[in-house]
Hints:
Blueprint: H1 4-8, E1 20-24, H2 31-42, E2 46-48, H3 49-57, H4 61-68, H5 70-85, E3 91-93, H6 102-111, E4 112-118, H7 121-128, H8 142-157, E5 162-165, H9 171-188
Parallel strand pairs: 1-3, 1-4, 2-3, 4-5
Bound molecules: shikimate-3-phosphate.
Amino acid sequence: xxxxxxxxxxxxxxxxxxxxxxxxxxxxxxxxxxxxxxxxxxxxxxxxxxxxxxxxxxxxxxxxxxxxxxxxxxxxxxxxxxxxxxxxxxxxxxxxxxxxxxxxxxxxxxxxxxxxxxxxxxxxxxxxxxxxxxxxxxxxxxxxxxxxxxxxxxxxxxxxxxxxxxxxxxxxxxxxxxxxxxxxxxxxxxxxxxxxx
Length: 197
Ligand code: S3P
């Protein structure tokens, strides 16, 4: 027999979205992991823009950079994200450079809700070391590269609608914080800034 909680559970998405949620932030910030978990909780589809690019190109991101160059990658990235944002509301994880492109940023501003996952240098270095396939980090010392990217990109990510700290805590805790910030944003309609630890 159904429990009371099951009988009372409302059908469909837990939170009504009229626009897609777009996860932004540096490599290793947890955009895909946290985005996927958020999608499960909110009962929306999750889509990873980098995976869409890989499917469209039929080769890895490293291969795209190597064969056609970064500009070509950015071009495809913009087309893919525009297409995704023109579709039904869902949770979209973007590659770290997407939000830095002004055209992409404008498209996200009109057709999406951006969530920046802000993380400290050591966390990003540790997490990005766990997997290869990030061509920007092969150009030298990853820690120095990430540090430079933080300097260049953090002021731009800071314009996202919502910012949440991504740190080494159980994923559920970060997703709780993202969900709460999203609810506040939808109610208040104004930017939800990160609370520094
Ligand atoms: C990039 C981040 C990568 C990928 C590409 C470029 C960047 O995605 O899009 O290697 O410019 O920061 P992740 O942030 O998912 O690693």
